[in-house]
Amino acid sequence: MPERSGKSRKTQPVNDSYGHMQPQAVEMEKVVLGALMIDKDAFAVVSDILYPETFYDPRHQKIYQAIRSLNMAERPVDIMTVVEQLKKDSALESIGGPVYVAELSSMVATSAHIEYHAHVLAQKYIARQMISYAGTIGSEALDDSTDVDELIEKAERMLFELTQKNIKQDFVQIDSVIDQAVSIITKNSKNQGALTGVPSGFHKLDSITSGWQPSDLVIIAGRPAMGKTSFALSIAKNVAIDQGIPTAFFSLEMNDVQLVNRLISNTCEIDGTKLMSGNLDEADWKRLDSRLSLMQKKPLYIDQTPALNIFELRTKAQRLVREKGVKLIMIDYLQLMNASGTRYGNRQEEVSTISRSLKGLAKDLNIPILALSQLSRNVESREGAEGKRPLLSDLRESGAIEQDADMVLFVHRPEYYHIYEDANHNDLRGMAQIIIAKHRKGDIGDVLLNFKGRYTRFSNPEDSYMAPLPEDGIISSRMNINDADLPPANGDSPF
Question: Less crowded by CB within 10 Å, the N or C end of the chain?
Answer without folding.
Answer: N
